[in-house]
Design brief:
Layout (H helix, E strand, L loop, with lengths): L1 H9 L2 H6 L2 E6 L2 E7 L2 H4 L8 H20 L2 E10 L7 E11 L4 E9 L4 E11 L16
Antiparallel strand pairs: 1-2, 2-4, 3-6, 4-5, 5-6
Length: 143
């Protein structure tokens, strides 16, 4: 499953630019890491831009949902920035809370290599996304 998600991750130009790396996966759980590059990732005060926090959280939850439900699309997600995002490496963890036939609910956090939690949020995914548009997860649990 880890190799499959790494391959899917590598097909996204944005994920490659941001340096997202899938570092852990199990059914319903995915962790991504991203090294901070101040020159092109910082907002005006030098912290990690909230847009990248949102992208990390969205990707981690989407991948986690995909491990249990196959192809998914986000239908809603929220981000709560808890503190300025300061660190050299950011770790996003997506975890499925409930997987149903029509929706998958996941929660997520972003922490730094220093151990502090910088953001959290929730995501609702809709299974059954068009495989012609989205990559297919073949390693989902139960199959």
């Amino acid at each position: 499953m880890l190799d499959e998600l790494k391959k899917i991750n590598s097909t996204s130009a944005f994920n490659r630019w941001a340096g997202f790396d899938v570092t852990r996966t199990e059914p319903g759980v995915v962790e991504l890491t991203m090294a901070f590059r101040e020159a092109d990732m910082a907002q005006y005060a030098g912290f990690l831009h909230a847009g990248l926090i949102g992208a990390l959280l969205d990707t981690a939850c989407g991948f986690a949902a995909g491990t249990v439900a196959g192809n998914v699309l986000a239908s809603h997600f929220s981000v709560n920035c808890l503190a300025p995002a300061v660190g050299e490496v950011f770790i996003a963890r997506g975890q499925v809370v409930k997987a149903g036939k029509k929706q998958v609910f996941a929660r997520r956090t972003v922490r730094t290599n220093r151990g502090s939690v910088e953001a959290g949020g929730n995501r609702r995914c809709d299974p059954g996304a068009d495989p012609a548009v989205n990559h297919r997860f073949s390693g989902r649990s139960g199959k």
